[in-house]
Amino acid sequence: SPSPSGTSSSQPVSGGTLTYASGDAEPTCLDPHVGGNYPQALVSTQYLESLVSLDADGTVIPWLADSWTESDDGLTWEFTLVPDVVFTDGTPLDAAAVQANVAHLQDPETASSTGYLALKKVVATEAVSPEVVRFTLSAPDSALLESLSQPWLSIESPTALKRTQDENCAAPVGTGPFVVTDWVKQDSITLERNEDYSSPPADATHEGVAYLEKIVWRFIPESATRYAALQAGEVDVIDNVQPDTIVQAEASDSIRHLDAPRPGASNRIELNSSTVPFNDPLVREAFIRSANVDDAVTSLFQGTAERSYSALSSVEPLGVSAPDLFGYEPDEADGLLDEAGWTERDSDGYRVKDGERLTVRFPVSTNQSIPAEQSLFEQIQATAKETGFDLVLEPMDLSSWYAALAANEYNAVSAPYTKVGPDVLRILYHSSSIVPAPSGYFANLSQVSDPQLDTLLTDASQESDADARAALFTDAQDLLLGGYYLLPLYDQQNHFLLDSEVEGTRALPTVSAPTFYDTWLNR
Amino acid sequence: MSDIEIQAGLGRASGGQSSHPEQRPQRAAGRPGVVEIISALFGLFLVVSALVPTLLAPGDPLGIDPLAAFTPPSAGHWFGTDESGRDIYTRVVHGTGSSLVIGIVATAIGLGLGILLGTAAGMLGRVVDFTVNRFLEVLFAFPGLLLALLFILIYGPGVATATVAVGLSTAPGYARIIRGQLISVRSSSFVEAATVQGLPRWRILVRHILPNTLAPLLVLGTLGIGQAIVWASALSYLGLGAAPPAPEWGAMLSAGRTYITSAWWMSFFPGLFIVLTAVCATTIGRSIERRMRHA
Amino acid sequence: MTAALEVKNLTVGFGGRPGQDPVVQDVSFEVAAGECLAIVGESGSGKSVTARSLLGLAGAHSWVQADAVSITGQSVLGLPESAWRRRRGRDVGLILQDALVSLDPLRPIGREIGDSLRLHTKLSAADRTRRVLELLDSVGLPDGASRIRQRSGQLSGGQRQRALIASAIALDPPLLIADEPTTALDVTVQAQVLELLAEIKRRGNAIVLISHDLAVVSRIADRVAVMSAGRIIETGPTAEVLQNPQHPLTRAMLAAVPVDKPRRTQLSAVPVATIAPRSTVPDGLSVDDYPVRPVVLEASELRRSFRRPDGSRLVAVDDVSFRLHRAETLGLVGESGSGKTTTARLALALETPDAGEVRIFGEPWSAVQEKARRRLRGSVGAIYQDALGSFDPRLTVGDILRHALRAPAGGTTERGGSGHLSTESSQLLDQVGLPSGVLSRRPVDLSGGQRQRVGIARALASRPRILICDEPVSALDVTVQAQVLDLLDELQQELSLSLLFISHDLGVIGHMSDRVAVMKDGRIVETGATADVFADPRHPYTQQLLEAVPRFPQRSR
Amino acid sequence: MAESITDDRPRVRGRVVVAFVLTRLGGALFVLWAVATLTFFALRLIPGDPALAILGGPGSQASPEALEAVRREYGLDQPLFVQYLTQLWRLMMGDLGRSYSLNMDVAPLVGVQLGGTMQLAFLSLALAWLLALGLATWSTRGGKIARSIGSGLEIVAAALPHFWLATVLILLFSIWLGVLPPISTPGIAGLVLPVLTLAIPLAGFLGQVMRESLLTALESPFVLSARARGESERGVRLVHAIRHAALPAISLSGWAFGSLISGAVVVETIFARPGLGRTLLNAVTERDVPVVVGVVMIVAVVYILMTLLTDVASRLADPRLRAA
Ligand SMILES: Nc1ncnc2c1ncn2[C@@H]1O[C@H](COP(=O)(O)OP(=O)(O)OP(=O)(O)O)[C@@H](O)[C@H]1O
Ligand SMILES: Nc1ncnc2c1ncn2[C@@H]1O[C@H](COP(=O)(O)OP(=O)(O)OP(=O)(O)O)[C@@H](O)[C@H]1O
Ligand SMILES: [Mg+2]
Ligand SMILES: [Mg+2]
């Protein structure tokens, strides 16, 4: 779980500029409503705020909403807002503002993907009073609070939202501790302190304005350069840290490490069950048995990541871990393939059936996989070869990768998915997620189509009783893991290195993005 | 793509052909120097690596050994191991073939196109010359890597695309040199002398013009291979060339750069081989050039 | 009075241990103030190396030994570099052999000339400019104010030579060394430069004049030293050496000079061809008899112009007409740029005339397609000034001759099959006096004279009846030139060749041609039998040319 | 050697200058037109729907209506030829279109990025010049060993791939010695490593060319005649040889600039510098066609200007060219 990095006993001091170096792609829009990806979440956490947040245990806690109630049928929710909160453009935070945000997220013109999905069941909003807003749902949604805690559903100034999308993208207006003052494309974003800030989340360590005066948010794609810049003191915080760098940094006194695995799904390889060869469960199981993931994780991540045996992130309390299903058993894999009819081997040692080689096409999105992960795939390729799988790694840029998926030209694929709460399983494995959007994209990349699983996931998403919900998700995961649709690898890695002068930084337990509200510089 | 143009520059600057071969007796070819011998030996090493890599490195370039990952250079692993425990020396040796092939094929494409355009411009009369020249001018307005990137944008990344892209981007330079060479040879007095002898045009072309135009291409080609390898590896480095885990130098270097602070050998040795190969090609090319000039 | 220059046993070599393989050996001489010593000798005899050594500039990897070298009475042996620098330019001036490239092409000549002043005097910039203008004026480059801003590329050869002289005499050094100051200059310009040197001598400065041109030397030098293979073989007062040479090599050298040598006299000491001279022209045949011989090449009203970079047109050949008869030599003479080469190229149909026509053997030549000409190509051979450049650099002499033999023949004689090619190649070489050993060598590895012979052999391969020779001997030294001229002469008699012989050297033209045509600015200004034209030039330009030709007193036979 | 005496009559000179400017301008316009045309049609070969790319790639949840709207907005529903003419017209008006991925107009984007790249390229060119000139003069001054070292250094420098050199430099100066920042910083310090990375290989190339012409110049008669005038070794180099050494390098600088822009793609990525190279690489991986076209056009303009500049510089430095 996210741990605060600052353990110094000295008093926080106000002032100073913090430079953050991100290895993620530069967002194309600083408003996370538009699209909705992790780089947006990282930066917008500094200037936008959500209705609710999570604490370190995963319990929902108040933020912009003081309190909330759910109707018995689960179809209406009422949120009471914190009083006297003002957006940085002077617009007051009220029920109408929240309504405007929901409308903005649901407007097709906004082209929201993450937020849009999360609000799918919200059919109407209503201002009960200036402080109270009511959501009306088409079906009960046990994940609503978790969804609303995400930065992609943060609340922006309705006045600002009325501007053109370009303007809003360049400088979204929220209630957060910092304000976007400048954005030099392909270089940096400048954030300055919100001097009227008054709305920290319930678990913040102080009140009032932030300590830092300014944050310079830079984009440094090269991981080695990023680390060198941190060492040289040019930047104070870096993200997307490579395992070997973490190991080095941990030996250093002047650098602190913040490990904050992302919630939602674990990193895993999805096996496409809709086509040969993985339409045969035996072959799926054989593949999983033939992949030596444990050794790979040990050597590549050098203790910075734990092997996962679950479809969900280790920060998700409802995750089911099944180590016995995912062990490296090459002998068993051989037997399974023989059983499945892949009995012969060609001159290169690959299995053959009816003249066809046992080929697994694996498009790898170079934008979405860190180098260590790509190395991990290479190691899986090497071990799977011994069993007779021809795992073909096809590195490609993001749009080619999407195109390959849309054309169903893949047998295995790894795609991250970050979302707060176990409801991510419904998005990833419900059969309705096989239906592609007009663009061709779909979330159910294993193409699992199991009515029983569908029912479990739908029920879970509507079950507001915590225990019943947990049970449903457990059943669903047992079904999923037992079907060998996926090979879990490890949590979605989210490591930050901070200069030891940077004190008081923690990752928000929602999507594990760091917040610099409590941060101060001990210089 | 660069050395080629340097050559063009050299030709332009020194007036190309006109300099008399006798003028510099003291810098004659003579015995091969130490550097030339070393380059030749390294060249031999590269050729053996490319043809029978197992002779020099019997191991499997793709064979992983996760528990031996990140071993620094040692007696067991001369160049150390990478993140998956693969032996870097083995990979470098086995990668020679593909790196050389990329360099050679790219240069061949560049030279081939260059010859086509250059001879067309130099031989087919004014209209063609004018057209080809304008076309070359346009191509020159795309700096090498930019042309390669455009090509990759259209045809997608990969070894084949990177090779063709590098080849394409070198072509205008070659074309210009060939055209210049052709024109200077065509108007040289020995070609006139052949006309005076009453040789038919095509005989003059085949017997005098083409051989004298194309002979320097041997040098250009040699020099070009080194540069082509460097540029192709730049594309690999940008993630637009060979895909890992293929033991291609640029790709290895690219993969190794991630670990530069903890495992310098991963990027140092492939990089060193790229540099050495380019140096070796340049030295050999230059010494051929010197010999031809003094021959 | 001390000698301006005294040299005792100067020995110079390159590379290796000092004393090993010297290129200049035991050279000793003295030059007094107001005196001019000429050093003459064939190419490569060590003249320039001697000159450079006198300034401590023998070159990289050189070693110099001497018993004494003193300039204006002070020894300069073993002088440190800094001391040398103070003396160069001030005590001794050097005019380099390659005048055309001895001025920095990137710097205005005013600066180049002013450099000596800048380095050795404390004159202000304005004073320097004034002095440079004076100098320019004194070397005969008037209008100095605009000249000083020009760079060498904007000057003609003669102007460059004079600018170079100006830079060498800027400080009026007591000793001036002039290495071939007149080579590559037109006779008229040459005469001006010599006059300038004479003037300097008259002022009381000592001059060491280096030249391979005895005629030039005879004009100005008081004493002559003859060098051969690095040694001085003969020395004495000019008139004495030229009229009564003692050393056989000096004699051979003198004999080789074509000036005023009648047609058909042999110039070289040794016969070059094995073929016995057999005269085809009866003695006493006069110019008037020529019309009875058939015309082999006829040029009528040729005109050829070129575009200048600024778009205007330059008429290189204007209304040129001439006839070349069987077995005669027509000399074409004129100064640089007068259109000689262009005329030759028109005659060879390498260039198409804008107007006019060339016919050979009465058949159309310039007016037809190259395809049609090919049949007759074998009948017209060519010899070029730059023999080396006219050979494909990849080919050996053998290849060159074999290719030439395979080309369409012009003469009537039948040739054997390809099996005979190598024997015929050897025969050709034999004919031009080369051993068959050169067959396997490349032209680059041959000497200038040998190359020119290969060029002639190649031209002969197709049994031509016409030979067009564009400055065939200008690049050669007198003795080699003599051999080549003799060879051409003999071949003409043997094979009844018709020669169009182009040269800027009146001596060579006078010796070689039956008739002569004088060109100026693209036009033929005078034509006639050589003897007549030389004896009684009509056109003022011809007169000027002939006056400028340096002659030396004929030695008594 | 042909005698070329310049015609100093002002009329003629004026005419020559006007003709020169006109041909150059015509040539430049032609190149720009051809570059625009070539890229326009070449980029039509890219697989995939541009409308989809505009809406955030295939990963987005674009609705058919939105796609339709975008096609209309960007004129993608027009016939190809109409689109081509529209694009040409827009380019002529200085409108480079709108980025698919960056939510902004291309012209201001590349305009901003151009500055960084130009700064990098010019500084690198200047440094490369200094390094090359220094090495060439130093090594031709010393004996045989210095010469071999000099030419060896040049060959090795010329063979260094930018990305490797950058890595080694960062390792050396930022990590081990800790004296220079590995990323672009507002001051000069941040420029040092990127500029070195670009300059060293280029210096190798230029050095080879300079050494060649320097040696030729030093062996030439005009240097001998300068020495005969009493010119010192230093004078010979400063007054005569260096200018000759510089000439071919000047004429190569236009090309060198192009290669620096190629290098900038790598260097800007590694050192996290804003600039055209990084923009281009991003645009290529994002398939952001308008940005690619924009960068291509701006690079073409810069290239044309640079060739013009080097031509003029060559003419200034070498009076022989002026006469022709
Ligand atoms: N720098 C040098 N290194 C080696 N050998 C040289 C050098 N300079 C001259 N020589 C040799 O010294 C000999 C004499 O040369 P030098 O230039 O003095 O001849 P020259 O009498 O001036 O001939 P020319 O009439 O052709 O000018 C020649 O064989 C030449 O090859
Ligand atoms: N191809 C050409 N293009 C332009 N001008 C030319 C060309 N050939 C010759 N000329 C010019 O024509 C004129 C005559 O040249 P040509 O070479 O015939 O003179 P030449 O009498 O042979 O002189 P030289 O004694 O110097 O060889 C010169 O001014 C020359 O610059
Ligand atoms: Mg000489
Ligand atoms: Mg001529």
Describe the fold and architecture:
The complex is a heterotetramer of chains A (523), B (295), C (557) and D (324). Chain A has 523 residues and is α+β, with helices and mostly antiparallel strands. Chain A contains 16 helices and 25 strands. In chain A, a hairpin with a 6-residue loop joins strand 23 and strand 24. By secondary structure, chain B is an all-alpha fold. Chain B has one domain: MetI-like (MetI-like fold), CATH 1.10.3720. Chain B contains 11 helices and no strands. Chain B is elongated, with a radius of gyration of 22 Å. Chain B starts with a helix and ends with a helix. The N terminus of chain B is likely disordered. Chain C is α/β, with parallel strands linked by helices and 557 residues long. In chain C, the strands form 4 sheets. A 6-stranded mixed sheet of chain C has the order 7-8-9-3-10-11, sandwiched between helices. In chain C, strands 17-18-19-14-20-21 form a 6-stranded mixed sheet, sandwiched between helices. In chain C, helix 13 runs parallel beside helix 15 and helix 15 runs parallel beside helix 16. Chain C is globular, with a radius of gyration of 25 Å. Chain D is mostly helical and 324 residues long. The longest helix of chain D is centred in the last third of the chain and has 38 residues. The N terminus of chain D is likely disordered. At the B-D interface, helix 1, helix 5, helix 6, helix 9 and helix 10 of B face helix 1, helix 6, helix 7, helix 8 and helix 10 of D.
How would the blueprint of this fold be written?
The complex is a heterotetramer of chains A (523), B (295), C (557) and D (324).
Chain A: E1 17-22, H1 38-44, E2 52-54, E3 60-62, E4 65-70, E5 76-81, H2 95-106, H3 114-118, E6 122-127, E7 132-137, H4 144-148, H5 158-161, H6 165-170, E8 178-184, E9 188-193, E10 214-219, H7 223-231, E11 237-238, H8 243-250, E12 255-259, E13 267-271, H9 281-290, H10 293-301, H11 330-340, E14 344-345, E15 351-353, E16 356-357, E17 359-365, H12 371-387, E18 390-396, H13 398-406, E19 412-413, H14 424-429, H15 451-462, H16 466-482, E20 486-490, E21 495-499, E22 502-503, E23 506-507, E24 514-515, E25 520-521
Parallel strand pairs in A: 1-10, 1-11, 17-18
Antiparallel strand pairs in A: 2-3, 4-5, 5-7, 6-7, 8-9, 9-10, 11-21, 12-21, 13-19, 13-20, 14-15, 15-16, 22-25, 23-24
Helix pairs in contact in A: 9-11, 10-12, 15-16
Chain B: H1 2-13, H2 34-51, H3 53-56, H4 88-123, H5 125-140, H6 144-155, H7 159-186, H8 189-196, H9 201-237, H10 249-257, H11 265-294
Helix pairs in contact in B: 1-7, 1-9, 2-4, 2-11, 4-5, 4-7, 4-9, 5-7, 6-7, 7-9, 8-9, 9-10, 9-11, 10-11
Chain D: H1 10-43, H2 50-54, H3 64-73, H4 80-92, H5 106-141, H6 144-159, H7 162-176, H8 189-218, H9 221-228, H10 233-270, H11 276-286, H12 289-317, H13 319-323
Helix pairs in contact in D: 1-4, 1-12, 5-6, 5-8, 5-10, 5-12, 6-8, 7-8, 7-10, 8-10, 10-11, 10-12, 11-12
